[in-house]
Amino acid sequence: MKRLSMIKITLSFMVLVLAFAPQAQASEGSHDLEEQHWSFSGPFGTFDRGALQRGFQVYTQVCAACHSLKYLSYRNLSDLGYDESQIKAIAAENTAMDGPNDEGEMFERPMRPSDAFKSPYSNDQEARYANNGALPPDLSLIAKARAGGADYIYGILTGYEEPPEGVVLGNGQHWNKVMPGNKIAMAAPLSDDIVGYSDESPTTKEQYSRDVAQFLTWAAEPKMEIRKRTGIKVILFLLVFAGIMYAVKRKIWVGVKH
Ligand code: HEC
Question: Chain-wide mean pLDDT for the chain?
Answer without folding.
Answer: 92
